[in-house]
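Students often ask why we bother encoding 3D structure as a string. The short answer is that it lets us treat folding as translation between two languages. Here is a chain of 195 residues written in the first language.
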Amino acid sequence: MDYEHFHRRNLPHLYFNDGLYFITFRLADSLPIGFIKQLHAELKNSCEALNIKEKKIFKKYDELLDKTYEGMKYLSIAEVAEIVRQTIHYEDGKDIKVICYCIMPNHVHLVLELLKGNRGISKIMQSIKRVSARRSNEFLKREGKFWQDESFDRWVRNDKELFNIINYVLENPVRAGLVKIWEDWKYTYIRKEYL
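And here it is in the second language, the structure alphabet:
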């Protein structure tokens, strides 16, 4: 496994040239800035290991995305969700193998495998977000930032973790109270061999 790079903005990012990734990206206004600053301040001086801090940040972000904050929910518009779905599937078989995803009203959970010779996870995600943002903004007849710049990403370390992440992604609309069973959420996808 070749190491690609590590960089830090608000979240740490460790990228490899291959492997499986769990990625969450969200709409630009999906979380209040005050909440984000407060959360990072609380965890900054914590003695906990970095991976524990990351999990706590992700859990709080996801809970707020699912239940509390009432920012724009463009992804609840069927045509916009379809644009995002098509954009993800466009990359399938080129640089990535799409394992599963869930398009929620204000964020997307995506699990993918990098294929040999891919152009790198950061470029792949930039492309998905750029194309879907442009097309969504055209449809919505709006201008401006569509996606939050930074995504949450996690390299999947083993089969047990992959199983747990897939379950987490599929059950997201159930946990958010949008449906009773995940199969009823229109914008949930899982590749057949992972069922």
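Translate back mentally: The helical segments are 33-44, 50-68, 78-91, 121-140, 159-175. Keep this in mind for the problem set.
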